[in-house]
Amino acid sequence: MEKEEIKKLLNRLIVNYSPEKLSLESFEGKSIVEDLDFDSVSLMQLVTEIEETFHVSLDESGSLLELLDSYDELLEFLIREGRLH
After folding, report:
1. I want to staple 82 with a disulfide (CB 3.0 to 4.6 A). Which of 10, 30, 42, 78 is the partner?
2. What was the pLDDT predicted at 26?
3. Residue 59: C-alpha distances to residues 2, 22, 27 (Å)
4. Global pTM?
């Protein structure tokens, strides 16, 4: 799976589950929780959808909070561990 494909899917999921109206902008360098204002419910929905879409378990990453605090780290994790099929 290519980085751009993963990035597009991740961005779309963030926009879809965000409690705020977001556009498909670059989220690089941002915190999903702090900068994008995800509340606990929308964050859990996003995590569930990421796990289902990319066939990963974010709980098993050992650093769920760090992944959610950094878009860049989450993207790198999905590039390393994710798969679409």
Report:
1. 78
2. 80
3. 23, 26, 22
4. 0.86
Is 11 in a helix, a strand, or coil? helix
Give dist(CA 19, CA 5) in Å, integer: 24
Structure tokens at 31: 């915190």
- What does the alpha-carbon distance between residue 52 and residue 36 come to, in Å, rounded to a whole number? 21
DSSP 19-65: SS---S---TT--TTTTS---HHHHHHHHHHHHHHHT--GGGGS-HH
CA nearest neighbour of 46 among 18, 83, 84: 18
C-alpha distances in angstroms, 83 versus 34, 36, 40, 56?
27, 25, 26, 8
**DSSP conformation class of 82:** -
Taking 50 as the pLDDT cut, the residues of the chain under it are: none
